UniProtKB/TrEMBL annotation:
Organism encoding this protein: Gossypium darwinii (Darwin's cotton)
Main location: membrane
Entry's transmembrane regions: 24-44, 78-95, 101-120
Protein name in UniProt: Copper transport protein
InterPro entries, alphabetized: Cop_transporter
Amino acid sequence: MMHMTFYWSRQVTLLFSSWRTDSWPSYALTLLACVLASVFYQYLEHVRYRVRRSRKPAGEPLLSQPNRAAGKWSAKKIAGGLLFGLSSGLGYLLMLAVMSFNGGVFLAIVLGLTIGFLWLRSEDEDEIAGVNSTCACA
């Protein structure tokens, strides 16, 4: 039976019909896997942000137009695309896991996303805030 409202139970089927929990140890391992997958998702987003924000070569103006012919298939674009695909796929799997409507799975994923953000990505927000705070906007 597929639940359509949140429920609290150690018995959950997650993502695949073969991934079922029926005991507390298997449920705990499933919740741990959800936390780790969520932290890994934040890690992928952090790496993708770093690749996208990597510095331009010295002497190149900040707002210069990119050379479209030379940079069409650059290593940076390919790496960014692969990271985006991996991150998107994992994000959708996390969303589907939340759609199991199991309260523990939901809390584990939110906990993992929070840990990952605080550990890896909060400095990204600080950098953005630092740039915005130095802006002399009137």
